[in-house]
Amino acid sequence: MAEVTFRNQIATDEFLANRVEVTSAGTANWHIGSEMDPRARAALDRAGYTQAGTPAAFADREYLNRHDLVIVMTREHLREVTSRLTNPRSRVMMLRNLLQPGLDLDVPDPYYGDLQDFTECLGLIKEAGQRLTSELRRQLGAGAP
C-alpha cells in the first residue's frame, strides 16, 4: 500500500516526479513474486489508488544499498534493514517518525485483520506520505508546495 500511495504522491508533485523513484521490498522472503494482499488492493481501490503495485520482492543487501532513503514500517524492519545495509550514504527512516518524530512507533500490521484494518493503515500511510513529500521537497531544494 505504501508503494502505491507514495508513487502516486510523488507522481503528482511536479518537482519530485522526475527526481524520486519509489520501490518496495519486504524484509522477509515469504511472499516473493506474490501480488499484494486482496484486502490491501481493496483499500487502495476504495481510496482511489488504482495503480498496480509491484510483485513482492526481498530487501537484500544489494537492493538496500541502491537506495538513498529506505522507509520502514516497524522496529523489527529497522533492525533487519540496518543489519544488511552497508552503503553509508543510505538513510533509514521509520514511517511513523514522519508523523510523531523520535518515537519510533510501529505501523500496525493489518495482515491478521479485516478490510477496516487495511483502510486505517492506508490512512496512516497516506498522511505520512504527505509529510514525506514535503520533506523530500525541502531536502531537494524545492521548499514546501
Please specify the SSE layout and strand pairing.
Blueprint: H1 2-11, H2 38-46, H3 61-65, E1 69-72, H4 75-84, E2 91-94, H5 115-139
Helix pairs in contact: 1-5, 2-5
At a glance:
This protein has 145 residues and is mainly alpha-helical. The protein is 41% helix and 6% strand.
Tags for this model:
mainly alpha; 2 strands; about 140 residues; 5 helices; Rossmann fold
How is this structure best described in words?
- By secondary structure, the chain is mostly helical.
- It has five helices and two strands; from the N terminus they run αααβαβα.
- It has a single domain (2-139), classed as Response regulator (Rossmann fold), CATH 3.40.50.2300.
- Helix content is 41%, strand content 6%.
- Helix 4 links the parallel strand 1 (69-72) and strand 2 (91-94).
- The chain starts with a helix and ends in a 6-residue tail after the last helix.
Name the average pLDDT.
95
Number of strands: 2
Second CATH tier, the architecture: 3-Layer(aba) Sandwich
CATH superfamily: Response regulator
Helix-strand pattern: HHHEHEH
**Shape label:** globular
Give the CATH topology: Rossmann fold
